[in-house]
Amino acid sequence: MKTIRTNIKGYDIELEIDSTEDPSTECWVEKEGFTASLTALSHEGVLINSSDSELKVPDSIIHQIEDWAYANGY
Fold it and tell me: What is the mean pLDDT of residues 59-73?
């Protein structure tokens, strides 16, 4: 498994790429204790913390995160 990390506009991004016989990828976004998978963030537009509070993420930042993830093998 290969893990790639970056920070985009204060959001920590972690992309995991498993290139075994059944390849898969996972991408997680985190900021200040709020987190979500990239899939959930793309659909919902928010990160969630352990209290189920939401942090709205601007569409422009979601698109930057998606662009980075796809460019790196997501």
Answer: 97
Question: How far is residue 57's CA from residue 12's CA, in Å, rounded to a whole number?
Answer: 13
Phi/psi of residue 47, nearest 5 degrees: -105, 155
Confidence of residue 24 (pLDDT cuts 50, 70, 90): confident
Spatial contact of 73 and 25, defined as CB atoms under 8 Å apart = yes
User: How many domains does one find in the chain?
Assistant: 1
Q: By residue range, what is the domain housing residue 12? A: 2-71
Query: In this structure, are residues 65 and 41 in contact, taking their beta carbons and an 8 Å threshold?
Result: yes
Q: What is the pLDDT of residue 69?
A: 97
